[in-house]
Amino acid sequence: MGATTSTASGNGSDDEPPYRWPIPPPEGWTADDVDRIPGLPPHTELIDGSVVFVSPRTAFHGRCVRLLENSLLGQAPDHLDVMREMAIKLDTRNRPEPDVLVFPVEANTGPKQTWYKPEDIVLAVEVVSPDSRERDREVKLRKYADAGFPHFWRVEDDDGKGLPVVYVYELDPTTKAYGITGIFRDRLKVTVPFEIEVEIDLTAINQRRGGSATPGD
Fold first, then answer.
1. What distance lies between CA 161 and its chain's CA centroid?
2. In degrees rounded to 5, what are phi and psi of residue 127?
């Protein structure tokens, strides 16, 4: 594997060794390579054979993921599990990492597991960031539909208010395309894919345990 080098640091110092960027093979990286490439930052994704680095997480993004993971985990039926920021190996050239996943508990293989199979996914959730807007709205929407995920939620900042708006999609198995079944503000209430009613107070994004708001919000 070849490598290129970059300058040692942004302050003009030559004391640190240069970082060696991994160079992909001519046909691009594979999904299995993501576990083996040294020095990749956390949450690196593989899209069409190219590695995609995520931007620094915003407070809105982190609190959305926390709210959805905790709410779903607390209400989902016993046969479903919930996990944040875990990869899915769609195929050899695509390994995205949704912000929240819902899947059968049987899909868990052990503490060293790093990805799930697409046929195990019941629901994938993406919280849109400025740098991921096109990927989440278009690329991943198409890829998740092609992979057969029956349900997909896209979450965005509601007109810059710091509150989530959730776009809920359901897969049409005939066309293998998503149709939007609801847009939720303030309160999300759904029965699929959980077979029971799940309700999430979207205005609680800034609340901590015990009901207090996060300082600064």
1. 22
2. -95, 120
Is the predicted pLDDT of residue 9 greater than 60, yes or no? no
Q: Smallest Cα–Cα separation from 133: which of 50, 43, 55, 213?
A: 55
Q: How far out from the chain centre does Cα 100 lie?
A: 6
Average pLDDT score over residue span 65-94 = 96
CA 201 to chain centre: 20
Selection from 164, 152, 128, 147 nearest residue 55 by Cα:
128
**CA–CA distances in Å: residue 97 to residues 71, 136, 166:** 20, 11, 18
Average pLDDT estimate for 24-33? 80
**Least confident piece of the model among 36-40, 63-67, 192-196:** 36-40
Between 153 and 16, the more confident residue is 153
pLDDT digits (tens, 9 = 90+) for 156-193: 999 999 999 999 999 998 999 999 999 999 999 999 99
> Concatenated DSSP letters for the chain?
--EEE--S-TTS---SPPPEEEPPPTT---GGGGGTSTTPPTT-EEETTEEEPPPPPPHHHHHHHHHHHHHHHHHS-TTEEEEES-EE--BTTBB---SEEEEEGGG---TT--EE-GGG-SEEEEE--GGGHHIIIIIHHHHHHHHT-SEEEEEEESTTSS-EEEEEEEEETTTTEEEEEEEEESEEEE-TTTTS-EEEEGGGGGB-TTSPBPTT-
